[in-house]
Design goal:
The protein is α/β, with parallel strands linked by helices. It contains 8 helices and 7 strands, in the order E-E-H-H-E-H-E-H-E-H-H-H-H-E-E. The longest helix is centred in the last third of the chain and has 18 residues.
């Protein structure tokens, strides 16, 4: 069973080694040998060199997670010593703080592979925007993923506040009101079908668009060396799907 996305014409995972089940060093599109993934995580892997390859690698890693074939790459002593002298992450994930959705695990990546920025929702504040701006100055970073998930507590809180739910009676904490205020503009009417999912996807698409408006990010996206996408994680199937 292989699940994931079609990224730039590539079905995620195609041409990439999945645990020990595939060829030892299959080549990704563009001829870059991503490397052998051993179950011990013994080999340091070559980083993706384009936004499309970065997306394909993340989705291939998620496919391994779905199939319970994780390889836990780039975690051994050699990798720890290597990243102690400097890091070269090739993607950034902006995601929710939810304990069930750790990006390095659900994408089966290791030390030095990902920048990760996590806030409830997720919502965008100046710290997250500055983090994305900083990541965009690193040419190794080819992709930024804004990642949501189902059954998000922050979305539930915002909807409850919008509807005056007795589950969230006053007084309301100032910081939680800030969170509500940042989600409120994209909350649809109470009669909207599948309202929770609609709100969740509207939220991450808005964060994606806000990141695309940041100067350092937009310059690289225009140049074709960086892409910003939105996606969501399903807690039941364990799969990540792209949100257009």
């Amino acid at each position: 069973m292989l699940r994931g996305l079609v990224a730039g014409g590539l079905v995620a995972g195609t041409g990439l080694t999945l645990g020990g089940a595939g060829p030892a060093a299959a080549a990704t599109p563009g001829g870059l040998p991503r490397g052998t993934r051993s179950t011990s995580g013994a080999q340091t892997l070559l980083a993706p060199t384009s936004p499309g390859l970065a997306e394909a690698e993340l989705m291939a890693g998620n496919a391994r997670w779905v199939d319970q074939l994780q390889t836990h790459p780039n975690e051994n002593a050699a990798r720890r010593n290597l990243v102690a002298t400097g890091q070269h992450p090739w993607a950034m994930v902006v995601s929710c703080i939810d304990s069930r959705v750790p990006p390095e695990l659900i994408f089966d990546q290791g030390l030095g592979d990902l920048f990760v920025c996590r806030t409830a929702g997720p919502v965008l504040d100046n710290a997250v925007l500055a983090s994305a701006s900083y990541a965009a100055t690193k040419t190794d970073v080819k992709l930024i993923v804004v990642l949501a998930h189902e059954n998000c507590g922050a979305i539930d809180y915002a909807l409850g506040r919008e509807d005056g739910s007795p589950a969230y009676p006053p007084p309301h904490a100032v910081d939680l009101e800030w969170l509500y205020a940042h989600i409120k503009p994209i909350i649809p009417p109470a009669s909207t079908p599948d309202r929770v999912n609609v709100t969740t996807e509207r939220n991450i698409k808005r964060v994606r668009d806000q990141l695309l408006g940041e100067y350092n990010v937009s310059q690289r996206v225009t140049a074709g060396s960086l892409n910003v996408i939105s996606a969501r994680y399903d807690l039941n199937t364990w799969a990540v799907t792209k949100v257009l």
